[in-house]
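Just curious: can you write whichever protein you like plus the matching structure tokens?

***
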Amino acid sequence: MTLPILKVDGLTVYQGSYLAVRDIAFELLPGTDTAIVGPNGAGKSTLVKAILDLIPRSAGTVEIFGLPIKRLGRKRHLLGYMPQNFIFDRSFPISVSELVGLGWANEGKRPKAKGQRETFLLPKLWRQDREKSAAIVEALQRTDVYHLRHQAIGTLSGGQLKRVLLAYCLVTPRRLLILDEAFAGVDVQGTADFYALLNQLKREEGWTVLQVSHDIDMVSRHCDRVLCLNQTLVCTGKPEIALSPQNLLATYGPGFSRYEHHH
């Protein structure tokens, strides 16, 4: 029996007196790519933040890698997250390589400081530094932003920054990648290119992906499963079922029109 990477059961979130999401339950199996779709204000970002324990849940449970989210401990580095808006001071002097390096996690046994002789400590630190540098270079190359490695992150375009954040997630092995409107602010061609890169990395890394998206056409092309959300789950299933005209009408209401990309 295949155990789920993520299990959400009865998740409910109130924001003050407002019911943002109600009684959400679903599971993600390893290696799958699941999209959350729904209208503005449907609770998509709220759901993701509650899953990540970034905002409090009013009810329900979340398990990742078979553990409650609060008990992940050192397994937390296996979880990657790309927010909808990466807010930072654009004058802050940090380069692309430095930002990606912040995502690196050394999970080997660390030497004990007490009673540790310096002659044994320094070679280990040098080895860790070489491993980190090599991981940063590889992540930047695989996301096609190696040429930007010395550039300040405040000078990047929206599409470039998304790739750098993906490199941040790639620099350390992950099992689950959660993306909250990762393509917001990126043009149609940039979105298509990013999806192609994400799918390639997903296959190579064996990632399980949960993504919030407003792009129904891209979701239907690339995702294995869809969760239609409007405060509660309206429907779930494969794209050809969940994204039927009837289900989209029930999720978005009248007036919704589906835009299809043509390349």
